[in-house]
């Protein structure tokens, strides 16, 4: 078999050095079509980090090729599906290392819908592209069933195509011993309330501050610690806190915290709060549940799914009075019992194992449906 690269430099945009526009194959006697592979270990568990998953992907590819007496030198085309555009550089580096620096035609496709209120189908060409490509899809997965509605309305999903509800990920965080967590973070208060999230209009820190101030009539020893990675509304938050003596004494604006320290904050907290009007996945809430911080969060689809009614309370987004009432009600409960209920819910529904089981159930259902309708097309 002979391979010849074709990488024209004129009349077309240049490649970036880690791939070529085309490759010509001549003299090939066999073709091996690979279904694709994931960053899973032999026991089916995922790699703990992006780097480990990339290593596993290429180890799996080499194993598949070896079963046919082939090596990575026989690969002539590669397509990679990424769930986050930030993974592109690591993916390219792993590919270059696995191929020994050999460049082949390759495409990395990012498939992501982190937020339910994005520009789904707003541009006409996106609607056309979605309708043209949806026939290749057997099913669509969403963190919450309600998130599928705008996709159907935009024409990305036909009336006949199934959608399923499953969380897109879990959290590896685990609780830190409470006394150690409080000492490490300096958090205090009874209850100790924690905010983790961007300071933007969607997360709505102003409603949370208003409601927290109102709750102090029933929770005089409460404190609020706020951790945030972006600070669009930071000046508004500072002015609100500075203008209320009760908040000045009880609100601690921490800012960004390295992720390796975040489990200690979640573990030191009694309650976790955020005022989101919309969320695609709700990772901060998932991490709070993993570490035992009882949620008092907004009543939106993703949060209803994550909390499962097991512990804490939900309140209408934008309603400071409702938040104050919910926070005070939960704050006087037996929080040790609430944490136990939350831990049980997380183990049953939100661990990687639980998410994986649900995903496998969906895949099995899709395969059964596909076999029963073999030969049919979705228009």
Q: Any overview of this molecule?
A:
The chain has 379 residues and is α/β, with parallel strands linked by helices. The chain has three domains: 2-110, RutC-like (60s Ribosomal Protein L30, Chain: A); 124-169 and 357-372, no CATH class; 178-350, Rossmann fold (3-Layer(aba) Sandwich), CATH 3.40.50.2000. It contains 14 helices and twelve strands. The chain has helices at 50-67, 88-98, 124-133, 148-153, 178-185, 205-215, 234-242, 245-248, 259-268, 283-291, 301-307, 320-331, 335-349, 352-372; strands at 2-6, 22-26, 78-82, 106-110, 140-142, 163-165, 192-196, 223-227, 251-255, 271-274, 294-298, 313-315. A six-stranded parallel β-sheet has the order 9-8-7-10-11-12, with helices on both faces. It has a two-stranded antiparallel sheet with strand order 1-2. Strand 10, helix 10 (283-291) and strand 11 form a beta-alpha-beta unit. Helix 1 (50-67) packs parallel to helix 2. The longest helix has 21 residues, at 352-372. Residues 121-126 and 374-379 have low confidence and may be disordered.
The biggest sheet, with number of strands, parallel, antiparallel or mixed sense and barrel status, is: 6 strands, parallel
In terms of quaternary structure, the protein is single chain
- Helical segment tally? 14
CATH superfamily of the largest domain: Glycogen Phosphorylase B
Q: What is the radius of gyration computed over CA atoms, rounded to a whole number of angstroms?
A: 25 Å
- CATH class category label of the largest domain: Alpha Beta
Order of helices and strands: EEHEHEHEHEHEHEHHEHEHEHEHHH
* Uncertain residue segments: 121-126, 374-379
Strand content: 5-15%
Distance between the termini: 40 Å
Number of E-type strands? 12
């Amino acid at each position: 078999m002979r391979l010849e690269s074709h990488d024209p430099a004129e009349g077309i945009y240049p490649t970036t050095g880690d791939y070529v526009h085309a490759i010509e194959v001549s003299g090939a006697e066999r073709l091996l079509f690979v279904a694709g592979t994931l960053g899973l270990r032999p026991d089916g568990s995922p790699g703990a980090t992006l780097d480990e998953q990339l290593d596993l992907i290429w180890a799996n590819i080499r194993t598949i090729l070896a079963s046919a007496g082939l090596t990575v030198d026989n690969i002539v085309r590669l397509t990679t599906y990424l769930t986050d555009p930030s993974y592109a550089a690591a993916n390219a580096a792993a590919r270059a290392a696995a191929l020994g620096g050999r460049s082949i035609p390759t495409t990395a496709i990012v498939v992501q819908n982190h937020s339910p209120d994005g520009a789904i189908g707003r541009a006409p060409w996106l609607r056309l592209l979605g309708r043209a490509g949806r026939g290749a899809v057997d099913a669509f997965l969403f963190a919450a069933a309600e998130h599928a509605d705008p996709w159907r309305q935009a024409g990305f999903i036909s009336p006949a195509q199934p959608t399923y509800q499953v969380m897109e990920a879990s959290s590896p965080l685990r609780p830190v011993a409470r006394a150690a967590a409080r000492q490490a973070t300096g958090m205090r208060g009874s209850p100790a309330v924690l905010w983790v999230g961007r300071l933007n209009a969607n997360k709505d820190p102003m409603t949370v501050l208003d409601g927290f101030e109102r709750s102090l009539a029933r929770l005089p020893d409460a404190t609020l610690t706020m951790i945030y990675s972006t600070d669009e509304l930071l000046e508004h938050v500072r002015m609100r806190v500075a203008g209320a003596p009760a908040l000045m004494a009880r609100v601690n604006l921490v800012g960004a915290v390295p992720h390796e320290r975040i489990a200690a904050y979640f573990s030191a907290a009694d309650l976790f709060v955020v005022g989101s009007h919309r969320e695609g996945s709700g990772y901060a809430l998932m991490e709070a549940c993993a570490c035992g911080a009882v949620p008092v969060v907004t009543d939106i689809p993703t949060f209803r799914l994550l909390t499962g009614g097991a512990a804490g309370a939900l309140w209408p987004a934008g309603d400071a009075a409702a938040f104050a009432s919910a926070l005070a009600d939960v704050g006087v409960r037996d929080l040790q019992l609430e944490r136990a209920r939350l831990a049980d819910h997380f183990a049953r529904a939100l661990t990687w194992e639980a998410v994986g089981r649900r995903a496998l159930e969906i895949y099995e259902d899709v395969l059964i449906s596909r076999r029963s309708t073999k030969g049919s097309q979705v228009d």
